[in-house]
Structure formats: structure tokens, C-alpha cells
């Protein structure tokens, strides 16, 4: 693959998606940035995709609502259309859901999402399969008229983090969506937990929903790893490993308090 900013040419072996009815074809998703038709600003901060605050956000009962968010059903529809498109290739395609799909489809903690973030480190070394996924995403978004104001964002963490997240997600083997030869896996719960805690500092997401998400992701990790609790020092090690360093103690304490409210016990040993 070329350097950032280069033009990616889809291989002729994959059929093009149908034209975009309202106008010209939307540009293909690629690993160098969000599609130009994105209405959401974004930047990459320490391995986690952070949305740049926009003036159209409104607050309603502690819930941030953005125009034209993707509903749970719309996300599922996009995944179904991707599976339909990918079934033509007769290849096994596996993606890791980093954001959007996890909260709306898997955990059901959110009714809507402003974005979807996928990852698969190994696709970077397989241009043909990566182009196939790009075409499937473009095809799926063509089928959802309201999606032109939403985004599928690239996972722009460092190479080491992308590899670690992909490998650990496939080893965790928690499938969110599967149809034909297309599977979407949950990300490593400890990684997503660190991202949620970091977001509390970076974008001030101290909402009940943000705390609920972080507590639930920690709970999923503890169940998956057959543990009762995790030490705060270990969480700091995770943050270093995944390059999400801003896991401040007071934010972790907030999550532990919410964990205690939701599950009746501590999930984090703060003194260790």
C-alpha cells in the first residue's frame, strides 16, 4: 500500500458496488482517513479515535445526541449488506469492531452511534482482500440513504497496537455478527476499557452512559478472564501497552464506583 494521501485503486477482480442514487458514487473507504462525505470531524489521539466536538451537539438528559446518527437497526442493515456483498467472493473475511457496533449491536448500551470503526491488522498485508472490504463498505452505505452523513472510520493506532488488538480479539473469539463468510468480532475488552477511561479525560465523557460502558467492559473482561477484580497498577500497564496513557486514578475510581453500583462489588483494587 502507498503512503498516506496516495490514491488506492480497487482491483478489477471485485465487482463495483452499484451507483449511489442521489448523486455521484461516494468515495471508497480506505485506511488513510475518513471519506470526504463525512460530516464529523475527527482526529487520532493516542490510538483511540476521538470525535472533534461540533456545534450541532445537543444535550438531552445527560445524553449527547448528534444529527443523523446510525441506529442499531441501521448498523445491522449495513452489516447485512456487507455480508451480502462479501458472499460473492467466497472468501472468509474477519473484522474487529472497535467502536459503534459494540455499543449498539453487542452490548445494547446505546440506541445510536455517530460512527463505526473496524480493524484487521492482517488486511494491511493483503491489498486484494482489503480492497474487497472497501468495496463491501461502499456497497453497504449505498443501500442506506441516511448514512451519507455518517462515517466508517479507519483504526489509526500504531502498527503494534493494531496487531495486538486484532490478534487478541480473534483469540478472544467473541463474535458480534456473522453471516455467510463474514464475521465481526468484539475487540479485547481490556483495550476498550482503557479507551473509555481515556475518553473521560480527553472529551469529558463523565456521563452515566460513559461510566456504564466502562464498567460493563471491565465486567466482560473479568468474566472472560475468569477473574474477580483487577489491580489499578495492572490497568496502568494496559494503558501503556495499548498507548492510551491517560487513565487517571480519579477516573478509574469513578468507574469502580459505577461497577460497584451495577454489580454489587469492587471490580478494581485501587490500592494495588
Please give a handful of descriptors for the protein shown.
272 residues, alpha/beta, 2 domains, five-stranded mixed β-sheet, two-stranded antiparallel ribbon, 8 helices, 17% strand, disordered N terminus
Percent helix range: 25-40%
Question: Ranges with pLDDT <50 over ≥5 residues?
Answer: 1-67
Number of strands: 13
Taken in chain order, the helices and strands follow as: EEEEEHEHEEHEHEEHHEHHE
What average pLDDT do the residues reach? 75
Number of helices: 8
What's the domain count?
2
Q: What is the CA-CA span between the terminal residues?
A: 44 Å
Structural class estimated from helices and strands: alpha/beta
Radius of gyration: 19 Å
Instruction: Tell me the β content.
Output: 15-25%
Largest sheet: 5 strands, mixed
Explain this structure to me?
The radius of gyration is 19 Å and the shape is globular. It has 272 residues and is an alpha/beta fold. It is built from eight helices and 13 strands. The termini are far apart. It has helices at residues 72-86, 101-106, 127-142, 159-172, 189-202, 208-224, 232-241, 249-263, and strands at residues 42-45, 48-51, 58-60, 63-65, 70-71, 93-99, 112-113, 115-119, 151-153, 175-179, 182-185, 230-231, 268-269. Residues 1-67 have low confidence and may be disordered. The longest helix has 17 residues, at 208-224. It has two domains: 42-187, no CATH class; 191-269, no CATH class. The strands form five sheets. A five-stranded mixed sheet has the order 9-8-6-11-10, sandwiched between helices. Strand 10 (175-179) and strand 11 form a beta hairpin.
